[in-house]
Design goal:
Number of strands: 0
Radius of gyration: 18 Å
Number of helices: 4
Shape: elongated
Number of domains: 1
Distance between the termini: 24 Å
Order of helices and strands: HHHH
Length: 155
């Protein structure tokens, strides 16, 4: 394996860990604590700020995953026809995750920020619930992608 190949696979895995791990932490750890510790206005402000800091990392992860993934497929593995079914599954689920994230970012997240700024707490809560649902779906898909990536070639 060349240095460039090693760098590509390392960046690919690190990007996936950042995105999926961040979702796991937010959904399974931070969310229950925030519900217990904060009243809705403070909780909604917290989430708006958390997402504002986390989402640039998700955008970076998405870009790196796409670049490194397709680079490996075409430069290392001989193109789409040469890769196993597990790579096609990863690609399909990955694109679904990207599309869900883009919807989350450009619709519910934008509306959450606006509602928090204008202190429309019921609207902000509604948008946070939409985000929670999408993150839960993307987290599940991300865990499936990781399992397919780790064991797919052996199935």
């Amino acid at each position: 394996m060349t240095t460039l190949s090693t760098l590509a696979i390392s960046l690919h895995i690190l990007s996936a860990v950042l995105w999926v791990g961040g979702m796991f932490f937010a959904h399974q750890v931070l969310r229950p604590v925030a519900v217990q510790q904060f009243e809705p206005p403070q909780r909604l402000q917290l989430w708006a700020q958390v997402f504002t800091r986390f989402f640039p990392w998700v955008w970076l992860s998405v870009v790196v995953l796409l670049i490194t993934g397709y680079w490996m497929v075409f430069m290392l593995f001989g193109g789409m026809a040469a890769v196993g079914l597990h790579v096609h599954i990863m690609q399909g689920l990955g694109w679904l995750m990207v599309l869900l994230y883009m919807h989350l970012y450009f619709a519910p997240f934008r509306r959450l920020k606006e509602a928090v700024i204008t202190e429309q707490w019921p609207e902000a809560a509604k948008r946070l619930n939409q985000i929670r649902l999408i993150v839960g779906i993307n987290l599940s898909l991300g865990l499936i992608v990781i399992a397919v990536a780790a064991g797919g070639r052996y199935i």
